[in-house]
Amino acid sequence: MSTPTVTGPATRTAARPVPSRRPRRTRPLTVLLHAVLIAAALIMLSPLVFGLFASVSPLDQILSRNGGLLPRVWEWGTYVQAWTTASFSRYFVNSVIVTALVVLLDTLASSMTGYVLARRRLRGQRLLEGVYVGTLFVGLTTATLYPQYVIAEALGLANLLGIALVQLAGIMLVHIFLIKAFVLGLGTEMEDAARVDGCGLFGTYWRIAFPMMRPILATTVILGFQASWNNYQVPLVFSLAAPDLRTLVVGVSALQYDAAEGMTPYNTVLAGANMALVPIVVIFIVLQRHFVRGWTDGSVKG
Amino acid sequence: MPAVVRSPRRAQWHRREDGVGRLMLLPSLLPYLAFALLPIGWLFWFSFQRWNGFTAPRFAGVANYERMIGDEQWWLAVLNTVKFGAGRLIIEIPLALVLAYVFFRGVRAGTVYRTILFLPHVLSPAIIGIIFVFLLRETGGPINQLLVGSGLVEAPIRFLGEAGSALASLVGVGVWAHLGINLLLFFAGMMTIPNELLESASLEGAGHWSTLRHIVLPMLAPVTRVVILISIIGTLRSFDLVKTLTDGGPAGGTEVMFTYLYRFFFEPESVPQIGYAAALGVTASVIVGIISVAYLRISRSGRTAR
Fold it and tell me: Domain tally for chain B?
């Protein structure tokens, strides 16, 4: 990028009102820049749009050589087929149950632990934190899925709750440290006042600190929701022997395997894929700011 | 709360509070023990066993590791993993940096663009893989229809049909999915750069390129290190996208570490080889660790040398 030092009228945008950061940019460059950005936006969106089109196109159209990209006729029946014949209604419920369990348990467990780690100095606490950090570094990966499943089975948890607990073990450590850092940044006046009035540790956490953690909990809820809803590996392994435990994401991949063997029409696979995508896209659009904050907090501070 | 006065009642109260504190650690500790610490220990232990998952396991010493050293397919998978990671980083990081800088300096409708670029990051990588299998089809895939229709290529490209192009497709889809998060993190990092620095730079007539090079990049160094480290770890641990987009194919051409070892656990040709899979799992974690630490060392020494 070459940079002309011509002083021109600074381009106004609503996004950031700091005039000094606004570059002196000549018009052709601005046009070029927008052309590049529009192209980038199209590249990001078109795969999803083509996927949507293909999911409602007739099968012979999407399998033919030059079928065209727009649906010849809009056949929404693929969605009905995925929902009923391919048991996506069941998978949808499973996804909702697992995600809800993960978010609920994560919010309670991580906030409690983060609070205690920030406010108490228990014997062995340093060791515990060290072990948690070490685990983050070693990481739970595809390789630990087998033992996780074996242990869940031994505990009688080869079910949706087991899927949620395994996912929880993978995501909560980061959240614990995020919450601990947040609580350390909170003043203790309110909590002290509650203690003087005879509130115990748990009471102080639950009545005073928990409500004050709302901003950081918004972050962990978003991160937890996204991680759980999109998770593939854990429900995949749990449902190998029990297809009833499939979540939407696993259900779609199972359909894809069927399609590869010619047992399921391809447009139905894409209809299923869109069913798994639409909820999170809608929630993302509604809660955009929280997603962005969640990810910047979660990565840079975590 | 420092306990200065030590009356017996106060000590008792402290003991009770500590007990409550310990209880409050349990909701995270129990799932951690059962589904994090124990599985990691289990994996390590079983990497020294021979076990098919059904009959009694037998202690095998380092036999699994010896077998791994001679397993060419495994080392091919390691190489593919590194290629995939390197390919993604080389494209993704500079692109994300430049775009973040564009948004940082301000552009009309910047928020809208940023949102769109970030969108793929909230989607499930497994589903992204499934959608791209369709988009990249040789016959009638939308991308080939566009390329052929616009006259850019003469015959449809076999995106997933050959080892080289399949790995390139994997990199491309990976960049598509992760560009937005890197951009966002760089952008957030840039927003913390003090305004005065940029003002004085522009007063001294620094253009965009020199501002980016001499002010933004040095100030951004800590963020860049984190972003690159996250990307390295993320790509080396890849599973979902690879599994659904290429499933390691064609003929092992895009097999990465974790899709390869997954087969020995869950998709064996005859019986599961848990011990061998565990040894591969331990090795994969060690490889990820070594590369991460090496990167941290190199990036740190690079900074002090300057």
Answer: 1
Which residues in chain B have their CB less than 8 angstroms from residue A152's CB?
34-35
> What residues of A are in contact with residue B199 (Cβ under 8 Å)?
20
User: Is residue B258 within 8 angstroms of chain A, CB to CB?
Assistant: yes
Of B133, B135, B140, the CB nearest to A63: B140
**pLDDT under 70 in chain A at which residues?**
1-26, 298-302
Q: Quick one: closest CA in B to A147, which residue?
A: B39
Collect the ranges in chain B with pLDDT lower than 50. Answer: 1, 3, 304-306
The ranges assigned to domains in chain A are 24-75, 85-301
pLDDT at B302: 59
Residue A4 is predicted with a pLDDT of 39
- Which residues span the domain enclosing B91? 63-305
With respect to residue B160, please indicate whether it lies within any of the assigned structural domains. Answer: yes
The per-residue pLDDT for B157 is 87
Q: What is the pLDDT of residue B141?
A: 86
- Give pLDDT, residue B251: 87
User: What are the backbone dihedrals phi and psi of residue A225, each rounded to the nearest 5 degrees, phi first?
Assistant: -60, -50
Q: Please report the pLDDT score of residue B6 as a whole number.
A: 60
What is the domain-level CATH number for residue B240? 1.10.3720.10
Query: Which residues in B lie closer than 8 A to residue A123 (C-beta atoms)?
Result: 18
The interface pTM score, or ipTM, of the predicted complex is: 0.90
Assign domain A85-301 to a CATH class. Answer: mainly alpha
Contacts of B22 in chain A (CB under 8 A): 122
CA of B305, closest CA in chain A: separation in Å? 25
